[in-house]
Structures are given as C-alpha cells and as structure tokens.
Amino acid sequence: MTLVTDAIARAAAILDSGGLVAFPTETVYGLGADATNPDAVRRIFEAKGRPADHPVIVHVADAVDLGAWARTVSDAARKLAQAFWPGPLTLIVERAAAVSDAVTGGQDTVGVRVPSHPVAQALLRTFGRGIAGPSANRFGRISPTTADHVRAELGDRVDLVLDGGQTEVGIESTIIDVSGAHPALLRPGMISAAQLEAVLGEPLAATSRTSPRVSGALAAHYAPTTPLDLLASRDVDAIASTASQRIVVLARRPAPASARVAWIAAPADPVGYAHDLYAQLRALDAAGFDRIVVEAPPADPAWAAVRDRLARAAFGAGAETP
C-alpha cells in the first residue's frame, strides 16, 4: 500500500507540473494531463499524434464534480450519473466557460466521466482536479489494457506509468450526448443502449451530422498495423482451409478440422470477448502474420460495442503508425 501511495503522490506532482501520467481505468489505460492546463493537454496530442480538433474526455473523482465542467446539468445527466457512475459511461454536456478548447477540440461540449478503478480514483482524489485522459496509445492504434502496452507504445513520451494490472472491461466507455433536448448514443460500450433507455425512460435519439465529435468515433480506429479482415463464419472457414499466406484467425469457437492456419478461440460471450480483445489484437499484430482474419460477432445488441471496435479496426488496419 505504501508503494502505491508513493506512486500516486508522485503522479499527482507530475500532473501538477504539467507532465503526463498514464493511469488505469476500468476500461483501458488513459494518458492523463491536468485538464485545467491547456499546455499540458496539448502534450497529450503531441505524444499520441492526435489531431488537435479531436476532443478528449475529462475524468473526475465524483459526480458532484460534473458541475465544474458543465454549463448546466440536465435531468438526463443526473439520472445517468446516479445510475452508472463510477463506471464506464461518458456524458457529453455543454461545456462551462472555463473549459479550454484544448480539451473540447473547439466544440461547445465536453465529455466527462467518473472512473471506478481504485488507482484512477486515488489519483483523481490526490490530484484534486480533472484529468484529461484519452487512451494511452498512438492515435488510431489499439488501446492499451496493461501498463506494459503503454510502455511499449509510448516509451518516454509519458513521464510515469501507474500499473494497475489488466483492465476489467477492456474496451472504452459508452458515450452518450446529453447536451441537447434528447440524449443520443455516440459510442457503444459495455453499458448498453437498453440500459440507458431504461434509466432515462425514453428512447435514445439518432445521431446526426451536428452531433458532437467524440473520442473513438472515426471510421479508422483501434487498428493493428497488420491487415485485418472482418468476415462471416462461412468465409472464415473457407479461407482457413485454403490459405497460403501466414494467416491467423480470431474466432469465437475452436478451429474446424479443415483449418490450415493459426487459430485463436476467443471467449464466446461479449463481456469476455471485450475484455480480451485488445490484448489479443496486440499479440497477433506483434507475431508477424501477413493477415489477421476475425470472425464477425453476432448481430445482437449485446455485441454492439465489440462490433463497433472491430469494424473500425478493420477499416484502419495496415496503415502506417502516425
């Protein structure tokens, strides 16, 4: 406990001086900076190679801190915060006057969440201010779910990495826009649309061209450098039985007898699959295969967040790291 306490104190001091600290949340590891210091936030963008107009999420210690970042806190925001915070939900709210463009990407909204990971909570409470914290990886690449992933990806671009073990959820938070009259789901996560609607007591609105830009919503994201194809089960089997390249298959079942390729049987349930997904993709990306073939998840609401991540990974896979 003493070592953790000392590490947290050191991390808070680094943040206070404008430095960068990678820290675990229940979703993925974040690359943190003092959210009230625009110069420190800009260091995040430099370290990640992130476009300046791409907003970051502000992490706070408690739901009561939302008022410091939001111009107003709507009934919908209060309901969702009470139901799901601390936890893997980000609320998009109208930004308070003091929130900098460096955090919002120049928009009139800001994303805020309360993480549940004990290390993140300890850091936030020790630091005493909001921490801007996108995923601790190069922009567009696979999000990190362990401290080793962060070190391998960012090296000395980050001043300190707090090691909190492997993350519990494994994919990023659900993002819901509560800045307008009707809440809208902007990024799926482990908190489902049905759960959100049950708390709100109304159906979610559709997104539109005027919806706020949010983290992880570009067509290409979460991507390995190895080409990745997302295919139906029958197409996976056909490739696996005839392939001549060094191909690896990531599926939700054991390999068929006809398979002539490397085959990884991922968890068959969406929670377990999400937990392992990024670590699996990182390992396969580093293994030197010519191609990664992923069996498409079921068209079921429980798999919406996994389908979203895999579709964006397939779109961006194979491109050079920025």
Task: Walk me through this protein's architecture.
By secondary structure, the protein is of the alpha/beta class. It has 10 helices and 13 strands. A hairpin with a 6-residue loop joins strand 8 and strand 9. The two termini are 38 Å apart.
SSE layout and pairing:
Layout: H1 2-16, E1 21-24, E2 29-34, H2 38-48, E3 57-59, H3 75-84, E4 89-94, H4 101-104, E5 109-113, H5 118-127, E6 131-132, H6 147-154, E7 160-161, E8 174-177, E9 184-187, H7 193-200, E10 228-231, H8 233-242, E11 247-251, E12 262-265, H9 270-286, E13 291-295, H10 304-316
Parallel strand pairs: 1-7, 3-5, 4-8, 10-13, 11-12, 11-13
Antiparallel strand pairs: 1-2, 2-6, 3-6, 4-5, 8-9
Short description:
The chain has ten helices and 13 strands.
Q: What can be said about the biggest beta sheet?
A: 9 strands, mixed
CATH architecture of the largest domain: Alpha-Beta Complex
The chain-level mean pLDDT equals 94
Please name the fourth-level CATH homologous superfamily of the largest domain: DHBP synthase
Distance between the termini: 38 Å
Radius of gyration: 20 Å
User: Unreliable stretches, pLDDT < 50, 5 or more residues?
Assistant: none
Number of domains in the coordinates? 2
Strand content: 15-25%
Count, helices: 10
